Amino acid sequence: MTxxxxxxxxxxVFQPFRNVTAAESTRHGGVSPLPFASLNVxxxxxxxxxxxxxxxxxxxxxxxxxxxxxxxxxxxxxxxILKVTEPGRFEGYDALITNRPDHFLTVTVADCTPxxxxxxxxxxxxxxHAGWRGTVARIVEKxxxxxxxxxxxxxxxxYAYVGTCIDLCxxxxxxxxxxxxxxxxxxxxxxxxxxxxxxxxxxxxxxxxAGLPMGQIGISPYSTVLHNLDFYSYRAGNGTTGxxxxxxxxxxxx
Length: 254
Prior knowledge:
Layout: E1 8-9, E2 20-25, H1 49-62, E3 70-74, E4 81-83, E5 88-91, E6 95-98, E7 104-109, E8 113-119, E9 124-130, H2 132-136, H3 139-151, E10 158-162, E11 172-173, H4 175-178, E12 186-189, E13 194-197, H5 199-210, E14 217-219, E15 244-250
Helix pairs in contact: 3-5
């Protein structure tokens, strides 16, 4: 048993807003056997579909979310953004935005960075999947810009959470990846002759560049690799592992 023996974590940055439901799942409290143990919510894994569906049911139930109100996309590590007008599963988007209540946006991760945004002024939300490709493509900045265009969002009114992902000390990459990152977000390891990338810092910087106050940005203290007993890591699992969900939505007044 570990210290995080819970189905989900609630980002503290959103806790003052009672109308906002936001969370990220852990790997605890599900029904999947090894190597997916136990709360694997990834639809595109080799786990038994009935296990995944039960895990997803448990996760959403723990947050009092109706699965019929959930929005997801098959993510492709690019920078396409979908303005959501109805629940369902879509194809080819790595960021979802909406100003509709009772639409709960989700992204799936297992090392990539989940970013959740709440616009307290215009009552809109975003869920973003940012691996290294999405980070290089500046998907976070583009999502904030899309919220400004679609909803009239003012970045100063926004609160954001940069979720659990692979950490700097674990994310070794070759020059072909490192060359695409600013020097502020990479460190060279002379022993390994490789660079290490800080995805959290790179995405926090994009939020700040987009205009969000640093005091309104929460950052997960956890790592998918260093805390692999609590979170799934694609890298630590050599490609065979479960997935977590990050979710955000605004509840209707009633």
